[in-house]
Amino acid sequence: MKKPKKLSLKERNRLIARYRRYTKRTFKRKKISKSNDRIDVENIDLPSNFNLHENTDETLKIMNDFRAKVNGNHRLKSLNFQEIQHIDSSSALMLVAEIDVWNEKIGRALSPNHKTWDTRIKALLCEMGFFELLKMPPLEEKQKIDKEIIFLKFISGHKSEGEKARELKEKIEEVIGKELERKMHLFEGLTEAFTNTAQHAYNEKPCRYDKWWITAAYKESERKLVVSMYDRGKSIPKTLHKHDKWNQIKSYLSGDIMKKHTDLIEAAMRVSFEQKGGSKTRTQTQKTNRGKGLKQLLDFTKEGGRLTIISGKGYCVFDLNDNKLTTKKRKSLKYPLEGTLIEWKIDL
User: Fold this and answer.
1) Based on the structure, what is the number of domains in the chain?
2) Which end of the chain has the lower number of beta carbons within 10 A, N or C?
3) Could you tell me the CA-to-CA distances from 330 to 41, 63, 243, 333, 343 in Å, in that order?
4) Domain range for residue 114?
């Protein structure tokens, strides 16, 4: 048997140095991996007032954190709902959308412990369809409570699907116990909004995650109805420069127009409202009967209702009375809403 070669002192030192470099790199990689694992499995705690209108900054910050994990394929452990005491239907719809996409992309449901949730919040979220998304059994009859507000189960889609708008209208009429006034304005406006989402918010070849979501909420004691629509695509301020009325929109603006999202949304609304031509108007789609959706949505909220649009860092509230469009509220947001939320509030 051949004896191993005896190494010189210089050769031994070279091998030792090589081994130390190797172990140092390996340890560093393991340390980074463990650090990333800790980030991936963190929980997200939802605030006590999860409301886009009353607690805008905190709600949007949480939604942006959650969305970053959804888009980044992180191994999020769970969403903690136990602190929530107040939630509005539009904020709940945004949460529905992110959980829906999480399920599609990650392929496994989050596992919150609903036994620790506030009973009212639990009932509302169950109505909207959260329990199905989270793969949890529905509430038993004895767990249901009387509430002053009703959430309708969310509906989602990819294109301009008139049957989905009709389905929401029928659900609303079932809850309010009568035929919905100005129902054609809601139907035509929603289908137009679906089309705009498909054409502008998402890429030309959308994937299965590129959807819109709609819902409604009804407060019987005040006879108030809220209809909400949300998409996760490009925000309105980011797509307006491609609009066929862009030059008219710019005429309403001054200064650094690309940074003032609230101004962009307000200008787009005014140009759309003042657009003439009725059913013969041609828009970017080069089809007649397009471009009236925004006007139809305003008509649905006229005489006492309000239309809210939140997109990017812009937040605007409009009303329509005596055929006069008024901006009731506008503000620039600290955190962006990545996508667009449209909300209509009306008195029945």
Assistant:
1) 2
2) N
3) 37, 21, 22, 10, 14
4) 42-146
